[in-house]
Queue: 2 jobs
Job 1
Amino acid sequence: MARKVNVKTVKPENDEKVVKKVKKASRKKNKKILDEKKEKVYRILDEIKAFLVIDLIVFTVAFAGWYWYTHFYSEERNFSNETSNNEVVDYKSLKYISEDGHTLDVLNKKYLIEYDNKIVYKIMDLKANVLYEGDFKYTNIYEGIDGNLYITRVEDAGYSNLINLYVLKNNELEEIKELSESKAYFSPIKYYDEITNEFKLVGFTAFKSMYDEDMKETNKSYIYSLIDDEVKELDDYQLFGDSINLKEDNEEVITYDERYIVINNLKENDKKYGLYDIENNKVIVTPQYDGMFTNKDDEYIVIRNGKYGIVNKSLKKIIDFEYDFIDRNNGFYVVCKNDKLAIMNEQYELVSEYDFDYQKLSENEEYNYLNDFKTFVAYKISDKYVLTVNYKEYSDSLNYDKHETYVINSDGSYKIIEENEFIVNLNNSLIYSFDKTKKTYTFYDQDLNEMYNIDISNYDYNSRAIVSLLNESTIEIKLDSEIYYDYETGKEISEIKDYSYMNNDIEITYNNANHEISYQFDNKELNKIRVNKDLLNNKLHNSIEDSMFYYLTNEEYILVYKGE
């Protein structure tokens, strides 16, 4: 018998519900896929965004670095022009820093030069505007009497030389002359301006002795002046100038007159001196004096028969030949008769009597006008004259009978300072004397009144100390170590004092802790410069004019000026 099986029948759901369910599942699945795609896209976009942000940061940093370098660093390093504001009446400053290893110098307060190892890299004006840039090998650099800048290349061949002369023109160094003469050595003729303390190039000269066919000696000078292009010849005479500084084989002819130059006659055994007009290539005073030296415009100190007088270029006598010597100083003279000295003013009037002893170096050595070393030295300070008759006795271990300095008033009265050494430093206004026995320094103000004494006898030191005025607040006496004193009081201090003073509207401050000189205008810092203590003195700037000055180290240059 067959078994009966009960089968339960499942009723299928409604088709619409099934469709909805399937669609819902599909949407859920699609949403999940879409979310995963979106997440992937967002992740990619985030990565791109991060990359772009990093790229933007790198670009921004690079651009900022470039902009800083070209607009700030490069400007500061090479010719940074920092101004207080744009008004003409305000001061501005400029700072220039040389390339590594290069040296900076200023020529005649006119040209800023960057050089190293006889190679000039830049020539600029004082506002660091580049006039020349390159790598030009040179021997010497000069400012000419015509205001142009000249550079020489010199090849030395022993008994002669070759000079290639270049002039700065249109931002180039243009060769204008080649100077050479067999067995003749060309040397510069340099005019010294005593007012500005500047040397300027006049030209070049060479001299040689020859023998003609009859074996007779002849002498000839060759002269090249910057004012024309010809090398002129002058028979039997040599340009002598007011002094000759020997530098190995080279002799520089130094003249205090840029047109009329002292010459000497080598034709005769006894040398005679006269005048040569370099502009017209003409001897205007035939050599006839035993000595001839430029005094001032159209006046010359001359020697005849051992006596000194003063004449003009027409040989008119201004002062008769009555002095044993006439020693020219800045605006006055020291004159001598019978080994007695007196002071004579610029109008050739005696200020004093012959009250002061002239001490010779030796019994047989006469006064020599060209000798930089003399047994006496003289200065004019305000309306007083200072005459020291034992000049450099202590420093050069010389022995004089007199140990005296005379402070001479304009009426001829005087006081005596009996010290081994009396020093007047015209560069920084430091005036002091030294008593060798007591080991005591005495310092004086600008009216030559005693300020105070500094006793160094308690220091174990027997050599000559070096005394410096570091600034108008600090004196340094350098023994084996350095000792500092307050300039106002003479009291010993432990270190260099800070110092501040006004130059017109500019406040100039020296900070000892940082060795910095800063310049401020209207309480705003214009610029500052770090300095080596050894370079520091009370002149924290070099004045060009009242509204323009600069400070210079080997590698840094600051200019402060008023105007555009």
Note: Residues 290 and 304 are 6 Å apart (CA to CA).
Job 2
Amino acid sequence: MTNPIKDIEKSDAILIIGSNTTENHPVLSSYVKRAKTFKGTKLLVIDPRRVPIVRHADLWLRLKPGTDVACINGMMHVILDERLYDEEYVRSRTTGFDMLKKVMERYTPEYVEGITGIPKEQLVEAARIYGKAGAASILYAMGITQHTTGTDNVKSLANLAMLCGNVGIEGGGVNPLRGQNNVQGACDMGALPNVYTGYQKVTDDSVRAHMERAWGVDKLPKDAGLPVTDMMQKALEGEVKALYVIGENPMVSDPDLTHAKKCLENLDFLIVQDIFMTETAQMADVVLPSASFAEKDGTFTNTERKVQRVRKALHPPGEAKEDGEIIRELSERMGYPMKYDNAESIMREISEVTPSYCGINYDRLEREEIHWPCTGTDHPGTPCLHMDRFTCGLGVFHAIEYAPPAEVPDEEYPLYLTTGRVLYQFHTRSMTMKSDGLNVLAPECFVEISVQDAEQYQINEGDAIKVVSRRGEIEARAKISNQAFTGTVFIPFHYADAAANTLTHAALDPVSRIPEYKVCAVKIERA
């Protein structure tokens, strides 16, 4: 997030797009509801479903799945046409405006209505609410990123925020809501194929030399590694022989699970390190039992870039060990000793090799929580990014054209499928399925379908229905709901026995390599 969570309550307008905020981020959603209730903040929601946060919205734009770029471009067209943008901010702090303005000319409300299904009057109203706000915050989640155009979606939101001067101000910003508790921290620590810690590129000679000195090694690789989605395909092709999976369950969470299973089965060697025997662990040659978050010391970095201490409350059961300890022991047996006395010594190394963390240490974290970048031990941290200037100097507008999803409905598969989460289960249920109470509240998979589609297909509430895509089929119970969009069905991806990702396809964003979980074509029938 460019802004801290508390800034949400300072916003004059909040735009939520691609986020079922109350179910996926229930704590953060309370800030949105307080801003709306006590400050009178205007709330815009853009989503194909009537997600629960819509109850609090001043305006809900219901768009066809996968048409986010056209919608955002349409809002910018109106803002430009009515001169609602921040001319001084654009002139002094950005570049690429002329090209953006030229491309936006054809995204008239009428043109955008034809693509998205959003009535032109509603699009104009949304643009005016956002454009006239003194400070407007954008909140988005995986409904924006999990598309073949996910990178374009994010860049379009950055365009909109910069156009109205909403980056680098309190109550503004472009704020991604992370899907798990330490996703931000994992990325910060280099759990990506093309960077070291702090997003330092592996292709940068000076960065690589610095890391070689810090680790006492020669000739670190000069090339980026493989994204996880490419690893799976390379496994199928025989180029990747072994896979080490830590805290992930691709046999439920990967797209096109039939394909994912073939990829894993083609490996010579599969290691899984996890706290429970997941569906993926059941396929492994070796399972390494690891400790849960409450059984180890360390830090988490949350969605607002805040670094916080995590303290050990329990000893790991049985032969389970902390993830770091397992990795250190493996490394030593493979010929490279990792000499860390404890989690604090690892944090010391992090601050030495990571410019954005160089002012963060355990002494400070005992007293305070710190937002990176923190560039010295006397630096207070940076809750709000880009206050005076962008990291790269000028903010760059990207003039982006709308492109349709990789797969859209046709005569054979006439419905959109979109996937997501529910409040009472989490990710692949490796943890929440152990809770009897949660299983009472959300016991099984369902297919959310609109009243109109239920009538057309002669489906009643609770009927067993079959959902079929070009990749596979599942059966689940019908849930007739006014949250659903006519022509679109929604399935939560948590349930392995009716895995939604049996249906989704593995088309990838060309830049981020994220799969398009949020859009594919299906057909339904009574089971």
Note: The two ends are 44 Å apart (CA to CA).
